[in-house]
Structure formats: C-alpha cells, structure tokens
Amino acid sequence: MSAKQRTYILTQLSERELELLGANWTLFAHDHQMPPRLAPNGAPWLTWLLIGGRGAGKTRAGAEWVRAQALGLAPLAAAPMTNIALVGESEHDVREIMIEGVAGLLAVHRRDERPDWISSRKRLEWNNGAVAYAFSAEDPESLRGPQFSCAWSDELAKWRYAQETFDMLQFGLRLGSQPRQLITTTPRPNALIKRLMCDPTSVVTHAPTRANAYHLAPNFLQSVMARYRDTRLGRQELDGEIIEERSDALWSRALLEKCRVTEAPSLARIVVAVDPPASSSKRADSCGIVAAGIANDGAIYILADDTISAATPSVWATKAIALWRRCEADALVAEVNQGGEMVKAVIAEVDSTVPVLPVRATRGKYLRAEPVAALYEQGRVKHAGHFTALEDEMCDFGASGLSSGRSPDRLDALVWAIASLSFGAHAPPRVRSF
Q1: pTM over 0.85
Q2: Residue 292, SS3?
Q3: DSSP track, 203-242
Q4: Domain end: 187, 204, 237, which one?
Q5: In what order do the strands lie in the sheet with 300-305?
Q6: Are 48 and 194 contained in the same domain?
Q7: C-alpha closest to that of 339 among 384, 277, 395, 429
Q8: Using CB atoms within 10 A of its CB, is residue 43 exposed (0-12), middle (13-18) or buried (19+)?
Q9: Helix (H), strand (E), coil (C) string for 76-115
Q10: Which among 63, 149, 246, 318 could disulfide-bond with 108, CB atoms 3.0 to 4.6 Å apart, if both were Cys?
C-alpha cells in the first residue's frame, strides 16, 4: 500500500483495533529486534545477544521478548514462562528503563494484559501466573537461590560485576525444557561479551542507531553524527561496534602479546603492589593487587593479578599478604593517598612482619602510567601468563581514563609495582625462582 492508503485505513479503525494492531510486535519489529531461529550449531539458541547503538531499539526488543515469554506469544515463545529474571546495571535502571520506561515492560502491554508492578517486592505479576523478578548487577549474590525459565539482561557491558552476576544467573536458569536468555547491550570490548559472541549456542543481532531513525528526533541524529562520526566513541555508541582497543590507549593488544612469556626466570626482587579503595561499600572501587619481579638483567615480569572487589580493609590486606607469601616477595608497595597511616596499620594488623613501602601519588594516573608504558615499548616488561582483566584495562586506558569512567585499579597497582622495581630504590638482591 501507499502511505496515503495506509493512513486512510488506519483512520477507519477503532481505538480498540488500533491498540490490537499496535500490540502485534512482529508487524513493526526491525530484523535486528527478532532473534534467528537457530544457533550456528544448528540447534535452538540458548543466548541471544542484541548489540546495538544508542536508540537502536534494544529496550523495546527486550520488553517485547519478555512479554512474549510471559504470555506464550508465537513466534517468540511456544508456551508461557512462569519465572523470569530481569537483570540491569542497578535497581534504578531495572525499574526506570526495563519496567517503567517508555519502551519498558509496562508500556508494551495492552491495558487488559498489563502485569502489576509490585515495587516493594521487586516483581511483576501477570494474570496468568507468570512472574518476573528484578535484580541488580551490583548485587550478584541476590541471584543465588532463585530459579528461572528465562532471563533478560540489559546493558551487560556496563555491569560493575559482570562476570560474577552472569555466573550466578546461569546457575538459576534451570526451569523448563530449554531456559533461554536475551542480553541487550551497547558494545564494549569486555571478555565476557566476546566469549558469548563466539559461543556456538549464541545468536547475535546487531544494529546501529540509524536503523531506528524513524523513532528518534531528527536533530539528535544530525548533531551526534556530526560530532562523533568516525570517532572511537561514535563507532561504539552509535554504530554498535565492538572496538577491541582505544586508539589513544597507552597499550595495545599486539604489544602485550609480544611481551608474553610462559614463565618468569629467577628474580632478584619481587614486590606486591596494593592500590587500596577509598571505602568498602558495594559501590567502592576495587583494591588493585598485582605482583611483579625484576631479573638480574633488569627485565620486569608481571607474576599475578589478585585484585579484589568491594572488600573491607582486613579482607584486601589479607589477600595482598597471601600473594606476598605465595610469591616470596620482598615488600608490599602500598599507595597511601586514600588512607595514609591507616593503610600501613591495616596491613600490620594482619601481619606486622610484612615490610610495607608506602608510595604517594603526586601526579595524575595517566602521567604516572606513561613511563611504565614506555618500558613495555622498549621490551623491558614481560607478562608471565595471561591476565585478562588487567590487560583489558591496559588496552582501554587513555588520557581520559577508562571508557567506562571507572577507576583503573588493576592498572594502578601494576604501575606502582613496575615503578617501584624500575624507578625506586632497590633492596639488596635476593635471587630466587618463581
């Protein structure tokens, strides 16, 4: 039909008929908002990754998929699912975007089928008995215990505890004959998303922001495209591309691969560097804990990354001292900007025999990291093994910090360890094998 014919027919429909037509998602969905039927291995898929730019319609697709699962609507579902998990970056995001948002679950239902949102219990209840439970990725342990027949996870690339939350969710996906999950996210090059994309039981759909241009303000596309076209941020946030590393990062993947060795030789001195968080709340930064050693020829070897998240002072101190003992290290190098003498006192409470070398930052993180990056370029630093999370931070660290805006805690500890061995005063060498 022509646009004029379509408009005429729509004007002849009653309000009820228009509502029924608008609720037929398959008539309006873009191709990327509908999952492929089978996974690459020829079997029904278990994980659907919908990766797209800002405004590409990811939230609407997620809400419509959950609606179909709860009500048993073909072709997205064969029968109603009873227990559904809704997981977002925070409780606020689950409520404001996934449930109450303009493209959220309450908005995509017809009035006669709309579920009840019981905010005090963090659950949606449908008339047919289906229930969806809201969870925050800030609290992975809240997913320990419940069980589900399907799940919708939103903006996984932004989750603070992505791997921990994802793991707990997988243990709960155990109801029904074939539990499935949908993940809607703007891409970031984290290890979890890359693994899921390569999983033979996963399917991936992808779309840039412009694919949904009809539903976006014209001046939005014009202004943001003019400002961010061909930039790394634009390729990620608008084109929905996974950018493996930042163009302005101090380290590259290729450089780190050149620095990799299977094991370290005999080392003259070993230190464990600690970058303590400012607090121990759930929202606090991680405590960076990295071990490194220097050989007689001056080469530095990264030995371990035992960084810990949201830990109390006694917990991170115990973790750091355990690594110090395991590596038979000479000292703990601890940044004292956040805690001063408190940092040394916390370590002493766990083990007063551990020698602590306090260091204080007088320059910004980027300026401190530049000379360390230069040592990598010169081939003077080696990685004795793979340190995925640490290397992800290194390849995402530029002049503006990490692209997520979070603190580079692992990288900070790495910089302190290498700086102590290469630029600081050395204790008399004590050769040992690691």
Answers
A1: no
A2: strand
A3: EEEEE-GGGGGGGS-HHHHHHHHHHHTTSHHHHHHTS---
A4: 237
A5: 260-261, 381-384, 300-305, 288-294, 269-275, 331-335, 356-359
A6: yes
A7: 277
A8: exposed
A9: CCCCCCCEEEEEECCHHHHHHHHHCCCCCHHHHCCCCCCC
A10: 63
Which residue, chain included where needed, has tokens 């607090």?
279
**Residue type present at position 225:** M
Give the structural domain span for 389.
Answer: 253-422
Grouping H, G, I as helix, E, B as strand and the rest as coil, residue 180 is strand
* Phi, psi of 203, deg, nearest 5: -120, 150
Whole-number pLDDT of residue 427: 38
CATH number at residue 269: 3.30.420.280
Cα of first residue to Cα of last residue in the chain, in angstroms, is: 74
pLDDT along the chain (434 residues), means of 10: 88 87 86 92 94 93 97 94 96 97 95 94 97 97 96 94 94 95 89 88 93 87 80 78 79 89 95 83 77 96 92 89 95 78 84 89 89 95 92 90 86 95 55 37
Q: CA 159 to CA 414: how far, in whole Å?
A: 23
Q: CA angle at residue 181 from 177 to 182, to 5 degrees?
A: 145
Which amino acid is it at 233? Answer: L
Find the helix packing angle between 341-350 and 313-326, rounded to 10°: 60
